[in-house]
UniProtKB/TrEMBL annotation:
InterPro entries assigned to the protein according to its UniProt record, in alphabetical order: Rossmann-like_a/b/a_fold (IPR014729), Universal_stress_UspA (IPR006015), UspA (IPR006016)
Protein name: Universal stress protein
All residue ranges annotated as the UspA domain in the record: 3-136, 150-288
Domain of life according to the entry: Bacteria
Family: Belongs to the universal stress protein A family.
Length: 290
């Protein structure tokens, strides 16, 4: 399915905030909205309703109410609701694969801003093939105002960061916002320099000019494709996560790339995405590398 934004809901305040965000984004992008509840029958004593049919009806009623509410807020928005029985992470990954993006809610990180990711959220982010946006409970539309930027991290070659840059520019174009493209760099160990890399640095005039040139080259095709989107090029020495967080105070959305890493205990997201997710005070989009 294309032309759809999918929001995962479970009746919590966090998922309702994610649904509200997804609905606004669907209106901006002229896309349909799909509301998905990943459901498993709970037969234990902790379940509020022990009967399977009663549980399923309760879930269906919650989804119907969510669809009715969002349709009332956004007349003309195409909204559907689905209940899919299965493991939550697997169900949401599959639902996200059929959409332009998947939107999920996350609890605030205690008294500190950021996201508290459970095992389901971490697995979905690590395995999703499409962008995943995390929205905290309490995130309001008032943050999506003129002057607030779409912040995106750029690293490596233009190909490495292409998916994240594309998502950031598409989002900015839909909102009439600007893009702040951030490239962080650190001083490499002197012994890592090769003759070829030293020549590249000499040709560029030094380390910082080299990084600025790399960022400009990565942005060039997206500037051409989205000429009406204002762009701020931000190059700063420091760790990527810290630099992104330092400029996120006026961000509507922070966009980071993700290359999943497989370990003996499953997929893991990179340290930059992990750090931004846990400390950003606005929604965060995690975009997988293609």
């Amino acid at each position: 399915m294309t032309g759809v934004i999918t929001a995962g809901v479970d009746g919590t305040e966090e998922s309702l905030a994610a649904l509200a965000w997804a609905a606004r984004e669907a209106v901006r992008r002229d896309l349909a909205l799909r509301v998905v509840h990943a459901w498993r029958f709970q037969s234990d004593a902790a379940a509020e309703v022990a009967d399977r049919e009663a549980q399923e009806e309760w879930v269906r009623a919650a989804v119907r109410d969510a669809v009715t509410d969002v349709s009332g807020r956004h007349p003309g928005l195409r909204v559907t609701g689905d209940i899919v029985e299965g493991e939550p992470a697997e169900t949401l990954v599959a639902a996200g694969a059929e959409a332009e993006l998947l939107v999920l809610g996350s609890r605030g990180h205690g008294a500190v801003v950021g996201f508290l990711l459970g095992s389901v959220g971490q697995q979905v982010i690590a395995e999703a093939r499409r962008p995943v946006v995390l929205v905290r409970a309490g995130d309001k539309a008032s943050a999506e105002v003129a002057g607030h930027e779409i912040v995106v991290g750029q690293h490596g070659s233009p190909e490495d960061s292409g998916p994240a840059l594309r998502f950031a520019f598409e989002t900015a174009a839909a909102r009439g916002a600007s893009v702040r493209a951030v490239r962080a760099w650190t001083l490499p160990p002197v012994f890592s320099y090769s003759p070829a890399s030293l020549k590249l640095l000499d040709d560029a005039g030094g380390l910082e000019p080299y990084e600025k040139k790399a960022l400009a080259e990565a942005l060039a095709p997206w500037r051409e494709r989205f000429p009406d989107v204002p762009v701020v090029e931000h190059v700063e020495i420091g760790s990527a996560g810290q630099v992104l967080l330092s400029v996120s105070g006026r961000a509507q959305l922070v966009v980071v790339g993700r290359r999943a890493r497989r370990t003996g205990v499953g997929a893991r997201i990179g340290s930059v995405a992990h750090g931004v997710l846990h400390h950003a005070d606005c929604p965060v989009a995690v975009v997988p590398h293609e």
